[in-house]
Amino acid sequence: AFGTAHRAHSSMVGVDLPVRAAGFLMKKELDYFAAALDAPKRPFLAILGGAKVSDKIQLINNLLDKVDEMIIGGGMAFTFKAVEGHEIGGSLYDEEGGKLVPELLAKAEAKGVKIHLPTDFFVGSSFSEDA
């Protein structure tokens, strides 16, 4: 529910009704997130993905104050890998986000948060089966 609530999918915006409301699943997910963020059980691990670091900068920054470890996957992992000096070929690279990565890594180190990035990935010349 939470993962689609911010998207302009037909189930969210396609029905024009005078009254709209979030459902019980949304409430349950928000209650769970509140409990996890306000009084997390330890160790607390966050797993993040997506394409752009710059879209998630505030989330990453806030989570670094709360988590013990963070796994960064998806397309944005390649921005972190590139900043660390790895070749990423034609993989996604968020230029604006790349400028923020050193600051995020420094904060993680200062807070004692272990950042995990993919170690087993394939870099190809294109996104295709025969790359």
Could you characterize what this model shows?
The chain is mainly alpha-helical and 131 residues long. Helices cover 45% and strands 8% of the residues. The protein has six helices and three strands, in the order H-H-H-E-H-E-H-H-E. The protein has a three-stranded parallel β-sheet, covered by helices on one side. Helix 4 runs parallel beside helix 6 and helix 5 packs across helix 6. It is globular, with a radius of gyration of 18 Å. The two termini are 35 Å apart.
Biggest sheet character: 3 strands, parallel
Supply the helix-strand structural class: mainly alpha
As a percent range, the share of helical residues equals 40-55%
The poorly predicted ranges are none
Strand content: 5-15%
Q: What is the tally of helical segments?
A: 6
Q: How many whole angstroms does the radius of gyration measure?
A: 18 Å
- Roughly how many Å apart are the termini? 35 Å
Silhouette:
globular
One letter per element, helices H and strands E, the order comes to HHHEHEHHE
Mean pLDDT: 86
Number of beta-strand segments? 3
Q: Numbering strands along the chain, what is their spatial order in the largest sheet?
A: 1-2-3
